[in-house]
Amino acid sequence: MSETNNNIPRMVEGKVVVVTGAGGGIGRDIALAMAREGAKVVVNDIGASVSGEGNDAGPAQAVVNEIKDLGGEAVANTDSVSDATSAGRIVQTALDAFGRIDVIVNNAGILRDRFFHKMSLDEWDAVIKVHLYGAFHVSRAAAPHFKEQTSGNYIHMTSTSGLIGNFGQANYAAAKMGVAALSKSIALDMQKFNVRSNCISPFAWSRMIGSIPTDTPEEQARVERIKQMTPAKIAPLAVALASDASVQTNGQIFGVRNNEIFLFSQPRPIRSVHRGEGWTPQSVASHALPAMQASYFDLDRSGDVFSWDPV
């Protein structure tokens, strides 16, 4: 079937898309949406727990089966993104199954939350390897093919934990801020080959619902609104970014929060001070810092900035 039900041509018809971490959650919904819009999909997932333990081929194959039930084409892959060699096999799976690669969605991730002063080296290392190294490894494996065919598209998942801040997530925040910088660098380096790279910061808090108080009617109503922020809400933006309709969109950072789509700012100078004779430590302390203090940023967390409930 080459068209959607309303006879509009499908947005990613014939494109070959790799979605990492696609055995559930956001990745699964992106994989399904890509397939509905005509893509051939490599569903990558090692089948690990949220913290990265374990290995199970079932989740990836289950999503492949869902796609095939929709009449789409998909193959499963269970290689880890955290190692360069295995990440290369993810891309090779697309080449072997479908003969090309057009889109990489770097979605795979784990969480090992801990306050910074208690965080172990293993907790730091594991999260950085999956999120930041994983995005690099899979992107790098696809890069020669994108360069050769003078087309390609990267979509990376970042987070407001990195872009804004959050408690107990130094490993995750550092990785996700790094992913945003990686995406921008890829966009700069590969634009001459007609390759694009963008980020999505997704809000999909289904795992948090159980911890939110529901003692009052107001709290119950709030939880019901938050429940609307399902992983499926992220997929439309991902598909649009993967399509040729977004050809002018490169090096950007978006957010999706239920039915809202945001464009995030990127760091730029907002204030400066100058002394013709140069600075000393003393004049920095007495002049530069006080002059700029009114423009300092608060120690915000993501929840402080996104303080309204989704609608």
From TrEMBL:
Residues 15-211 form the Ketoreductase domain. SUPFAM superfamilies: NAD(P)-binding Rossmann-fold domains. InterPro entries: KR_dom, NAD(P)-bd_dom_sf, Peroxisomal_Beta-Oxidation, Sc_DH/Rdtase_CS, SDR_fam. This is NAD(P)-dependent dehydrogenase (Short-subunit alcohol dehydrogenase family). It comes from Hydrogenophaga palleronii. It comes from the Bacteria. Belongs to the short-chain dehydrogenases/reductases (SDR) family.
